């Protein structure tokens, strides 16, 4: 039985999506979820799915329906109470999906993640509605998910607490001779103990030769290493990330100078956050710090990918990069992280996730932004 709180959230989402559908002239929206991009299916069904392909079909009015290539997903989706008309479907056994589409009489269909739709599914949809126009609704769903409700923010705050606990577990195990994979195993144990569904993590250890982060390996930590991570647990479907670096032992002067540079860049990025700011402007504010200090070349794609990114049901949403003029409205959630290589002390990782508030921002993690050191007498 769906709770009153969940029902209110479901109705809020469907009103938002249907208003966008009406504006775009869509009769039906098909939220497609391939195995690695299931956020739109979860947004509309509030259920985790494990299928290689799943759809939630939303008509302009009336009840939605869901279709999945994994039989085990059917009771999971139906059990959430958000979408109760749920069917098993594959390209070779899609009678109910075809029947639903034909029954809709749709003339214009928006497909979220149409760009990822396999040819076999695209052909099936066209045969089901041969006279219909199919268009991408990816940006429609991106926009719908951008502004977080109080219901969503409550879940993301739970993720924030797990971020803090995971980072503390990270720091607690650091010592010379420890292999990288043991660090990640300690973090995984802690975040899973706290209820995380998943955790995305990259890591790097070493000194100024480190140029990026990778999955953990068997490299052994040494005294004076800086150990960097992006730690991103998923709770109730929602991802949140913390970026920090720690020193095995005591930090060198170069590592401290590197931290000061990156912290100044984070502060610069945060200083411009307000409703209506663009991803471009947040990136420029961070990059300008590096440019003023003579490190502008390390803001390029040769050394770094983004200066942050959105958070939500997908772990890497709207990119915070120069040239992306996506507007960040109140209650958007994203991380500000100027992670990149510089010759000062190698690749450095630092960043905080924030919520855009009416007059600025709210940092969602409680972990202090500092250069952590494991030496007992370190400051």
Note down, in words, how this protein is organized.
By secondary structure, the protein is of the alpha+beta class. The protein has two domains: 4-145, Creatine Amidinohydrolase, Chain A, domain 1, CATH 3.40.350; 150-373, Creatine Amidinohydrolase. The chain contains ten helices and 17 strands. It has helices at residues 4-24, 39-45, 73-80, 95-104, 119-128, 138-146, 150-173, 180-193, 253-271, 279-292; strands at residues 28-34, 53-59, 65-68, 86-88, 108-112, 133-136, 198-206, 226-235, 238-239, 242-247, 277-278, 308-310, 327-328, 333-336, 352-357, 360-363, 372-373. The protein has a six-stranded mixed sheet, sandwiched between helices. Strands 7, 8, 9, 10 and 17 form a five-stranded mixed sheet that branches. The chain has a four-stranded antiparallel sheet with strand order 12-14-15-16. α7 (150-173) packs antiparallel against α8 (180-193). It is elongated. The mean pLDDT is 97.
């Amino acid at each position: 039985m769906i709770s009153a709180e969940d029902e209110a959230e479901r109705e809020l989402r469907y009103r938002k999506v249907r208003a966008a559908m009406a504006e775009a002239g869509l009769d039906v929206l098909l939220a497609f979820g391939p195995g690695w991009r299931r956020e739109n299916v979860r947004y509309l069904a509030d259920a985790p799915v494990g299928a290689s392909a799943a759809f939630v079909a939303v008509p302009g009015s009336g009840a939605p329906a869901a279709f999945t290539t994994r039989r085990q997903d059917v009771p999971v989706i139906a059990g959430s109470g958000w979408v109760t008309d749920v069917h098993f479907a594959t390209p070779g056994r899609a009678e109910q999906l075809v029947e639903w589409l034909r029954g809709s009489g749709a003339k214009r269909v928006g497909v979220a993640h149409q760009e990822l739709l396999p040819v076999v599914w695209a052909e099936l949809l066209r045969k089901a509605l041969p006279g219909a126009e199919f268009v991408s609704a990816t940006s429609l769903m991106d926009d719908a998910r951008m502004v977080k409700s109080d219901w969503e923010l409550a879940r993301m705050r739970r993720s924030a607490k797990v971020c803090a606990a995971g980072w503390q577990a990270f720091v607690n195990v650091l010592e010379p001779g420890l292999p990288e994979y043991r660090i990640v195993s300690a973090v995984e144990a802690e975040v899973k103990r706290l209820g995380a569904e998943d955790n995305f993590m990259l890591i790097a250890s070493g000194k100024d030769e480190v140029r990026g982060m990778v999955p953990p390996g068997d490299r052994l930590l040494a005294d004076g290493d800086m150990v960097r991570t992006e730690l991103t647990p998923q709770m109730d479907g929602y991802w949140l990330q913390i970026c920090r670096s720690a020193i095995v032992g005591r930090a060198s002067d170069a590592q401290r100078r590197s931290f000061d540079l990156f912290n100044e860049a984070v502060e610069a990025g945060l200083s411009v956050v307000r409703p209506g700011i663009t991803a471009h402007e947040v990136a420029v504010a961070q990059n300008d710090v590096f440019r003023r200090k003579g490190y502008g070349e390390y803001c390029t794609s040769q050394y770094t990918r983004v200066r942050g990114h959105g958070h939500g049901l997908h772990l890497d949403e709207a990119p915070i990069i120069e040239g992306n003029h996506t507007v960040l409205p109140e209650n958007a959630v994203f991380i500000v992280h100027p992670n990149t290589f510089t010759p000062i002390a190698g690749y450095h990782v630092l960043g905080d996730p924030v919520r855009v508030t009416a007059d600025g921002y709210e940092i969602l993690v409680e972990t202090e932004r500092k250069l952590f050191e494991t030496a007992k007498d370190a400051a």
